[in-house]
Amino acid sequence: MRKSCRLVVDYMNVLMLGWEFPPFKSGGLGTYLFGFTKALSKKGTKVTFVMPSTGVKINPGFIEVVQAEDYAHLDLIEIEGFDFHPYSPSNNIIYSEEVKSDLERHEAEKNINAYGMDFFSKVKSYTVSAVKKMTSKPCDVIHCHDWMTFPAGIALKKAKNKPLIVTIHSTEFDRTGNQFPNEKICKVERNGLIEADKVITISNYMKNQLIERYNIPEQKIQVVYNGIDKSSYIVDNSNFALNEKVVLFLGRLTIQKGPDWFLEAAYQVLQFKPNTRFVIVGDGDMLSSLINKAIAMGISDKISFSGFQDNVKQFYSIADLFVMPSVSEPFGLTALEAMASKNPVIISKQSGVSEVINHCFKVDFWDVNQLTNKIIGVLEHGSLSHELKHNAFTELQSFSWGSVADQCLEIYKEVV
Amino acid sequence: MPAVCLYFHVHQPLRLRNYSLFDIGKNNNYFDDLANKFYLERVSNKCYLPTNKILLDLIEKHGDKFKFCFSITGVFLDQLEEHFPEVVESFQKLVDSGNVELFDETYYHSLAYLVSQKEFVKQVKMHSKKFKKVFRVKPKIFRNTEAMYSNEIAKAAEEMNFKGIVSEGLTSVLGWRSPNYVYKAKNSNIKVLLRNYKLSDDIAFRFSSRDWNEWPLTADKYALWLSQNKGHCINLFMDYETFGEHQWESTGIFNFLKHLPKEMFKTKKLEFATASEIINDFPVVGEFDVPYISSWADVDRDLSAWLENQMQQQAFNEIKSLEEKILASRNPKLIQDWRKLQISDHFYYMCTKWFADGDVHKYFNPYDSPYESFLNYANVLADLKQRLQ
After folding, report:
1. Which CATH architecture has domain B3-288?
2. Per the CB < 8 Å rule, is A359 touching B371?
3. Which residues of chain B are within 8 Å of residue A381 when distances are taken between CB atoms?
4. pLDDT in tens, B220-269
């Protein structure tokens, strides 16, 4: 009898509710869920992953393509009828061959976005389908990631009488840069936080937000920092032959990520070092204003808008410096990815990752002069760049998905 | 009856102001006067004034039986004279008692020995001159920055007419031998005073550590340890800021110091001596051979706290390479700025060893990271170079 109790605890059965999973696009959250579920299943945990349909059937073929043995315990279950992605408004647009320039592309996007999409009906149908499909599926604990899955999580908790864990990767305040957050979304977030038996956040920065803005008791929240698989980021870039130093921005082009601050700094850097290229990887609602701004500043020939990219490793590999000027960043996984790619890194102080990494520069996102000073410093001084990238790479040792999984398993055991 | 030599090193760095790319060519005021004054005032109140008072009381109480040694950097005296002359007076009072021996060092607490022999000699001479002016004393003992020592440095000190020189009591060099004796340097006749690092660090580092199984360290217990030592001399060398700044008053460090002489005399086996008395009174028992440069810093006892990583090496090599041009400019302000930029602390702040561990390096570091420190320094250097053109 005792033995079987132990077994239940050791081999936890987790119903995981998420919104994105690679390779179906996917920003930081998708990368997180990939690394996290992989590490959980390595430790013998059975994970059933529920996500919206991607339009392409996820079949065992895909799972095998990634790493079959790691996914022996992972079921991917799609909910039909979705083509909507809340973090990346324009990334489902397929461009025709003739629409090539950034400007044309942007115009195309604008037209499609103009149709508008109803967030809440998507969330609602996800909730209905998830509850319908999952109520009879056995599990020990339900684990939700971000607000879109909270209604489903709460309904399943009640239907199955199982504990609910929610992880907050970002709040409405982060996503909107604290400008006109959607009250309805805030409410969904707050409901999830209240109904959850335990809340996981990815930084103290986020934890404090939940205490201050959502009035969640401190004892209920636990911080588990992100992990990274640092072995997979070094790629060959020997074909790359650009005679310029490359400064990289990688993230959604929204207020939250601070691409406009990046552009301001680029302008200043170019006054001192004209032989510099600024590469902006990502898509989002600020694309057209950023392009217009670059043109108005007279630096558009030095800025490469590369759009959304699946293969970000290639971009890290050609960068001489990575900049993450986020206005409000709950964690900032891209900073760890850049470190794993041996890029020197400058991050904003308004980020969760700045709590845990030391071998980098930290600036206030609005301090364009300091950002400029540091960009030029790293590009000018080989010794500085060398020390930053090598020490940062070593520092990454403490960020493994295995450790994230261990910490979450502890939390599961606590609530079961 | 072993003679106990207490020696305190006194120094405060000159911190640079935040100096960005946008200051280059526009601003040649490199130093953060406000912060420097702030720290100076804080350390004066927490350490220099109260500790000087305790030492003066001990001299009055015990007369000739209590004595000790100081070295004080020129760059520190300059700052005191400008902002807190009353602290200079309290040091003068101690020296005037006749119970205090002063050691010479480099004026700028610098790595001048690694810049050039010429620059090294110049900075030591500047320091001697400063001591003559402030304390009317000509030191006979030399202590290089952070106790940096080698056979060559000892020889250079001898050539400047010093009779003794300070070194860490390096286990790697001494082997089975004890630091509690007078040695002579290899290839010269100057005598070497070796720091007993075990007993020195019991006070300087471990005094307030509750993880230490000897905590709390009391004066009578420590006096007993000293009395159980064999040898001729016990050299207790440490930063003066140990008293009240590194070890705060609340740790009991001041009471420890107040009671130490009395407890030592009670054992009837111990006496105090100055460094000059020690090298005059005791025979040389052997040769101290250090072919490479050592120091008293960190566990490594080498130069790695200042010159290990590429940033430190680049910064130091650049400042070093400017020597000829700077001196040829005959511009006193430029030369002085160049020397102030040699202060070893600038390079110490760029140290990446253990940076993430939040250890002793972090406590002394005004920068958020070694990278900030390097970039700030590199920007200042860029301006200095522009001024040369």
Report:
1. Alpha-Beta Barrel (3.20)
2. yes
3. 311, 314, 374-375, 378
4. 999 999 999 999 999 999 999 999 999 999 999 999 999 999 999 999 99
Q: Would you list the DSSP string of B80-96?
A: HHHH-HHHHHHHHHHHH
Which of the four CATH numbers 3.40.50.720, 3.40.50.2000, 1.10.3720.10, 3.40.50.2300 does domain A230-398 have? 3.40.50.2000
**Active site includes B146?**
yes
Q: Any residues with CB less than 8 A from the CB of B285 and at least 6 apart, and which?
A: B177, B181, B182, B183
Please give the CATH topology (third level) of the domain spanning A2-227+400-415.
Rossmann fold (3.40.50)
Among B274, B296, B282, B103, residue whose Cα is nearest residue B184: B282
* C-beta atoms of B314 and A386 within 8 A: no
Q: Per the CB < 8 Å rule, is B20 touching A370?
A: yes
Nearest-5° Cα angle at B83, B32 to B378: 20
Contact residues on chain B for A385, CB-CB shorter than 8 A: none
**pLDDT tens digit string along A346-363?**
999 999 999 999 999 999
Choose, out of B347, B371, B379, B381, the residue to mutate when testing the contact with A (most A CBs < 10 Å).
Answer: B371
Please pick, among B105, B146, B152, B241, the residue that the annotation labels catalytic. Answer: B146
Spell out the domain ranges in chain A.
2-227+400-415, 230-398
Instruction: Report the run of H or E that residue A13 belongs to, with start and end.
Output: strand A13-17
Contact between B309 and A383 using a beta-carbon 8 Å cutoff: yes
- What local confidence, expressed as pLDDT, does residue A56 receive? 57
